[in-house]
Design a protein that fits this description.
The structure holds two protein chains of two kinds. By secondary structure, chain A is of the alpha+beta class. Chain A folds into four domains: about 45 residues; about 130 residues, no CATH class; about 70 residues; about 250 residues, MetI-like (MetI-like fold). Chain A is built from 16 helices and 13 strands. In chain A, α5 runs antiparallel to α6, α8 crosses α11 and α12 packs antiparallel against α13. In chain B, the strands form eight sheets. In chain B, strands 6, 7, 8, 9 and 10 form a five-stranded antiparallel β-sheet that branches. A four-stranded antiparallel β-sheet of chain B has the order 1-29-28-27, with no helix packed on it. In chain B, strands 2-3-4-5 form a four-stranded antiparallel β-sheet, with no helix packed on it. Chain B is an alpha+beta fold. The chains are: A alpha+beta, B alpha+beta. The interface between A and B is large, with 106 and 115 residues.
């Protein structure tokens, strides 16, 4: 017996000395890293992608420890298990002896206007009866979040519909009409009134410019006044149209029976505040899938509501894409020219070597530093001076001397230009001398060689650099917080008003949206799924871009390998 | 012939284009490089002014306007520096242009017959109200405002006068003629303190009154006797503290908090033997006083509170003039002041920054005496100084934008007003006007390093070990997807990591602290245990998975282990710590637990740094020339020996540079720390407490900062520090890496 232990001991010691355990520890490090990477992506995907799936609405009858019976209706959001001690501490109640821990269900009960809160915790041991009533309707509203209840009646101008009608299809029928009206109203409010305001502001600036130049005459002032009157006329017409529409949209109302603190209660809801209504408990998988994509569509295409905690993220997607495109337009030519200069034109020497190291290092400078530079130099210094020179009429309100999408794009362009330079240079270095010399020997000038031979050959590395720059810019938030991002931009940087593209405007951004909704919003619990969804979208975009880079890099490698042979 | 002409024309065009392109590319390239250089110099240019000392230049000199009304008892400069005003004993206010001395407006205050103005003093913190002290023992509260109008593009200021607390002079019942009369107006009260020099009685009167109320009888009057002759009397802007002092430097401090019963909290000698208090002035806010003696010393004393809540006066710091102090002029909005000596030397000081920003000789005698009537005033923004001597007014322009910043106020411990001892504090703004900004970069730098330290503690071993395995042991088929998978994480937006850290990981760690800690501690042993198990398992079983796939085998093992740890730890917590580990830590170990703490930041930021370190380390190890390892293996070394003695040694500069670059990234990361910590600028090593980093501080404060203010420039300095530190780390890494490449080339 003792012999075997000895043997085993020495076997262990031998094994220990061989270094194998260390190899396993190293392997473990890789495994942990991989688990974290994929765990993280999986977490974001599950929480972000899962949010849009219509959940069943449960009806839960439960009995509290002190014997009170109550019912709530809502979606099961989360469960957790807490120790007896913590439960007793937080609730002040004594648990039955046999329970060592408590499983709690987090139920989204909705009806925030009635309950005051969106969520309610129920302990599993309290639950008496669990049901999925088929009649329950989940109504998404413009405000106060979701409503769970049973559709009781529909009224038109205060008169109830005949009871024999199929209420559910009637609801959808009328909802379609309401949605059309709402679109019309939004159209009028946003674009038409927006245009009037825009023109009026232009006219105000025109008059101020005349005053500042001292060139105002009775005639041109009259002209401006006439134009202003004209706009006001238009405004009045729109206003009248709006009044009519607002009357129409108020026509229909629906009554729902909701459960509030165990008591049922009738709530009347004007159709004007309903965004959508479904009966999740009677939907089959196919219908739920369709609803899933409808929800997804609304998420992508709608404006945010309720301080960004509900609705869609269209302006953020738009702002991100536009800012990144602007940045790309700026960074590509400059990055390529700088790289070509450094590699092809400049005399190689210690100075260029230092510059190269410096450019390399700039890629590692914290992004917030670029943001500080952008705010100080672009916004306050450049923008301020441009305002003084060209936009005196609008003073003291700054026109371009304030954070905006143009400055954000410029700042990020400076931040990412080292990436493009380094990548392009790498591509240029890889091109064999023989190819350059061949081209020059055939009589081509340096520029012709560059344009017709070298740049096309280097184009994949240029693309790589640009895509890397885009991937970095798309996910960067810290500098944008200083140079142009806002939580809610009233207008998109592109609209129907001349000159259509407004680069001085502030914009919304996916990354900042995550920060803002996740950390600055008053109702984080409600907003959390949307933040996950936004994160998921951003991660997808960035992984897609990076995969493109990796594929391109591999292809490039093959190409040069064949060239060298 | 024609062809050749055409050809040569074409040739010329080509050459021209070539030259043009060369020019454009060179210009463009240099332009881009210049912009990059500009980044650094712009930051430097914004920061530079905070280290500049002050300067002063005489702007104008003229004889006192409307001197026939009498000498000045009061001098002031109005906010926009267009007008100045002086008042005379007969109640006349003469407004004149600051730069020329031309009188623009005269106002006569209605005084009772036979009564003249003694002096005029500011009566509130913002300087809106004036306390006009009359020689019949009464006071009038006067407000001077300015109406702005434009006369043909020229800005015209018209003074307005109002009596927000009634036109009737206020008299406080006092047993004798008073020598000192102070009025302090706060939001809901007016407090008057009246005292007699030799008689030593002090009367404190409280009026509960808001602006617009007529002051009648005080709601509360209390009287007490001072322990010495009262040469100086001062009340702070909140009417909380009353200072009484005599010329030998004895000061008694009274707490006026309780209107009925002022309490003496201190009675101490502030000056050393022989010195005489020739000037005494409160510093902005009134919780500090400045005492000047006849040797030219100026001392700052401030009210401090010790742990037993006992108040006392403590000597904070001292400043020096060349001869007996004549004038001390505190600034209206900062904790700075001007001192003027008998010999006419003017010095500009700042108390917090403890610096003498300027010392110049005025070139004339600034002595106060009976023949030479002298009076001086500082403009509200402390950029103009007005000196009146002997019927002459001199106007000086003072350029002193950032007195509160000095090397010592940024990096050394500073004794701030109200604190018990010198400390490192970052507190840049407050709602109060008399706030003392605290711009110590130490807490922020500390926070930055702390966050980076915990992130590196977590990331470095994982990334380096992982890279070693991936580069040296891993099967090529597995490496082909492992490497890009980890590298792709480098591009993951840190805002997402921060969001997950703050809203998912932080609560998770809080609820499962024991599990998280034990996973960290037990993981290596668990790995070794499993490796041993694998080793003694029958080879027929283990053979199925070839060498180089260990990492794949371990994935389920680790997941199961972590799951078990999370499942078991509540039971352990219940058994050992009574089900509440955090409560146990708090009561038994005295460790407080913040939900968003360094542990969470370390994990999240570690995850952001791992790909960087991993990728560079992996490259360095993978590109160690194969003949080196083959030689080592051929000589009989085991793979592990080869790795530790040959590969890692050769690749160590590469690993070093990987760590440097990772560190650079951790130092500058903003979003994760912003979202995953409480952002409190405390200096605390505890892993269960948060921090505030330089980068997060910039992100939080810069958007709300006034452009070109000291705060703005200090934030730029923070950015410059970040820039310099990361640039330094990266440069080291880059140089090391280039040398390494050269070395590999030689091998």
């Amino acid at each position: 017996m003792s012999l075997t232990t000895n043997n085993q001991q020495s076997a262990f010691a031998h094994w220990w000395k061989s270094g194998n355990p260390m190899i396993w520890i190293n392997a473990g490090a890789v495994s942990i890293s991989l688990i974290m990477v994929f765990g993280l992506l999986g977490l974001i995907a599950a929480r972000g992608g899962g949010h849009f799936w219509p959940k069943d609405v449960l009806s839960i009858e439960y009995k509290t420890i002190d014997g009170k019976l109550s019912t709530i209706v809502g979606e099961l959001i989360d469960t957790d298990v807490i120790s007896k001690l913590r439960y007793e501490e937080s609730t002040g109640q004594t648990l039955p002896k046999e329970l060592r821990e408590v499983e709690r269900w987090m139920i989204k009960v909705g009806n925030r206007d009635q309950n005051g809160a969106d969520f309610k915790w129920v302990s599993k041991f309290e639950i008496q009866k669990l049901g999925k009533p088929s009649s329950v309707v989940a109504v998404e509203r413009m405000e106060w979040g979701t409503l769970f209840g049973e559709l009781k009646s529909i009224s038109e101008n205060g008169v109830d519909m005949a009871s024999h009608t199929d209420l559910w299809s009637e609801l959808h029928h009328r909802l379609d009409r309401t949605l059309e009206l709402r679109d019309l109203i939004r159209q009028l409010e946003k674009s038409e009134i927006g245009r009037v305001n825009y023109v009026l502001e232009k006219l105000r600036l025109e008059r101020r410019t005349l005053e500042l130049d001292g060139t105002e005459t009775a005639e041109n002032l009259r002209e401006i006044a006439a134009k202003e009157r004209h706009q006001q006329e238009i405004y009045k017409v729109i206003q009248r149209k709006l009044e009519v529409l607002n009357q129409q949209i108020k026509r229909d109302k629906a009554k729902f029976e909701i459960i509030n603190e165990g008591h049922s209660q009738i709530v009347e809801l004007p159709f004007a505040v309903i965004v959508g209504a479904i009966k999740p408990n009677v939907m089959n998988a196919g219908e739920k899938l369709i609803q899933y994509f409808i929800n997804l569509y609304h998420f992508f295409m709608d404006d945010p509501r309720e301080a960004n905690t509900e609705g869609g993220i269209f302006p953020a997607i738009f702002g991100t894409v536009m800012m990144v495109l602007l940045m790309t337009v700026l960074v590509t030519p400059f990055g390529v020219i700088a790289a070509v200069y450094l590699r092809e034109y400049a005399k190689q020497g210690p100075v260029i070597r230092i510059i190269r190291i410096a450019v390399n290092n700039l890629a590692g400078v914290p992004s917030i530093v670029y943001g500080v530079f952008g705010l100080g130099f672009f916004v306050y210094f450049l923008g301020g001076n441009i305002d003084d020179l060209f936009f005196t009429a609008a003073k003291p309100a700054p026109t371009v001397g304030t954070p905006g999408i143009m400055w954000a794009a410029l700042t990020l362009a400076i931040m990412t230009v080292p990436v493009v330079i380094v990548s392009t240079e790498e591509g240029l270095t890889r091109i064999p001398r023989s190819i350059r010399e061949g081209s020059l020997a055939l009589g081509a000038t340096r520029f012709e060689t560059l344009r017709n031979v070298i740049l096309p050959m280097a184009s994949p590395s240029i693309m790589t650099g640009v895509i890397l720059a885009i991937a970095r810019a798309a996910g960067e938030v810290a500098p944008l917080m200083l140079v142009g991002v806002v939580k809610l931009a009233p207008d998109l940087p592109i609209d129907a008003n001349f000159p259509f593209v407004h680069l001085e405007r502030k914009f919304m951004h996916l990354g900042f949206h995550i920060y803002d909704v996740g950390f600055q919003s008053p109702n984080v619990e409600v907003a959390r799924p949307l933040v996950y969804a936004t994160s998921f979208l951003l991660v997808l975009v960035i992984i897609f871009l990076n995969l493109a880079v990796i594929l391109m890099r591999n292809k490039l490698r093959e190409r040069y390998r064949s060239m060298e042979n | 012939m024609i062809n050749s002409v055409e050809a040569s024309a074409q040739q010329r065009r080509r050459n021209l284009l070539d030259r043009l392109a060369a020019g454009v590319i060179a210009a463009g390239g240099i332009w881009v490089i210049l912009i990059i250089v500009l980044l650094f110099f712009y930051l430097l240019a914004v920061v530079a002014p905070i280290f500049k000392s002050a300067s002063m230049a005489q702007q104008a000199q003229y004889s006192t306007p409307a001197i026939h009304h009498g000498v000045s008892v009061y001098l002031a400069i109005e906010e926009s520096k267009q007008l100045a005003v002086r008042a005379t004993p007969n109640g006349t206010f003469i407004f004149f242009e600051l730069t020329s001395g031309t009188p623009t407006y005269t106002y006569h205050l209605d005084l009772p017959p036979q009564v003249t103005v003694d002096s005029i003093a500011q009566a509130d913190v913002d300087g809106r109200f004036l306390n006009v002290k009359l020689d019949d023992d009464s006071m009038i509260i006067l407000e001077i405002g300015y109406r702005v109008s434009f006369d043909d593009e020229r800005r015209v200021l018209t003074p307005t006068f109002s009596f927000p607390y009634g036109e009737e002079p206020i008299t406080i019942e006092h047993n004798q003629q008073s020598d000192h009369r102070d009025l302090v107006i706060t939001e809901d009260a007016v407090v008057a303190v009246v005292s007699n020099r030799n008689n030593r009685t002090v009367s404190v009167a409280f009026f509960e009154a808001e602006e617009g109320d007529e002051l009648a009888d005080p709601d509360q009057v209390s009287q007490f006797e001072a322990p010495f002759d009262i040469d100086y009397q001062m009340v702070d802007g909140q009417a909380r503290w009353l200072y009484l002092a005599n010329r030998s430097g004895q000061v008694a401090l009274y707490d006026l908090n309780d209107a009925e019963d002022p309490v003496q909290v201190a009675n101490i000698a502030l000056l050393n033997g022989g010195a005489e208090a020739v000037v005494m002035q409160p510093l902005l806010g009134g919780s500090s006083i400045l005492i000047g003696d006849q040797f030219g010393n100026i001392y700052q004393y401030s009210i401090t509170r010790d742990k037993q809540n006992q108040y006392s006066l403590a000597r904070y710091r001292s400043f020096e003039l060349d001869s007996s102090v004549q004038v001390i002029l505190p600034e209206d909005r900062r904790k700075g002041f001007i001192g003027i000596s008998e010999q006419g030397t003017l010095s500009v000081f700042h108390t917090t920054a403890e610096q003498n920003l300027l010392s110049v000789s005025l070139g004339f005698d600034a002595r106060y005496n009976n023949e030479l009537h002298a009076l001086s005033t500082y403009s509200p923004r402390s950029d103009r100084l007005l000196l009146e001597t002997n019927g002459n007014i001199r106007v000086y322009e003072i350029d002193n934008h950032h007195p509160e910043i000095s090397w010592s106020s940024l990096w050394n411990e500073v004794w701030y007003e109200g604190y018990e001892s010198p400390e490192y504090i970052w507190q840049s703004s407050s709602a109060d006007n008399d706030f003392e900004p605290k711009f110590s970069l130490i807490p922020l730098s500390f926070g930055t390093l702390k966050a980076a330290f915990y992130a590196m503690m977590f990331a470095t071993p994982l990334a380096i070990f992982g890279a070693i395995f991936t580069a040296y042991f891993m099967a090529p088929a597995m490496r082909a997807w492992v490497k890009p998978s980890i590298e792709i994480m480098e591009a993951l937006p840190t805002v997402i990591l921060g969001f997950l850290a703050g809203l998912w990981l932080a609560p998770l760690v809080e609820d499962n602290l024991l599990a998280v800690v034990s996973v960290f501690l037990i993981m290596p042993f668990e790995l070794i245990f499993f490796a041993w198990l694998w080793h003694i398992l029958p080879h027929s079983l283990t053979r199925r998975i070839p060498d180089g796939w260990q990492a794949a085998v371990l994935i389920p093992v680790i997941i199961v282990f972590v799951w078990v740890a999370f499942a078991v730890s509540p039971l352990v917590e219940q058994a050992i710590f009574g089900g509440d580990l955090k409560g146990w830590m708090r009561t038994t170990l005295g460790i407080n637990y913040d939900q968003r703490n360094s542990l969470v930041v370390g994990l999240a930021m570690g995850l952001a740094v791992i790909p960087t370190i991993f990728s560079i380390t992996e490259d360095a190890i993978f590109s160690v020339p194969k003949h080196l390892t083959q030689g080592s293996l051929a000589l009989g070394a085991t793979p592990w020996q080869t790795l530790t003695r040959v590969v890692i040694l050769t690749a160590s500069p590469g690993i070093f540079s990987a760590v440097m670059i990772g560190l650079g990234r951790a130092v500058g990361e903003t979003m994760i720390v912003l979202m995953a910590t409480g952002n409190t600028p405390l200096m605390d090593f505890s892993v269960f407490q948060g921090m505030r980093t330089l980068s997060a501080n910039i992100a939080v404060e810069l958007p709300e900062t006034e452009v070109d203010s000291s705060h703005y420039r200090v934030l730029f300095l923070a950015a410059l520090v970040l820039f310099a530190v990361t640039f330094f780390f990266n440069t080291i890494a880059e140089v090391v890496r280039q040398n390494l490449r050269k070395k590999y080339g030689n091998l």
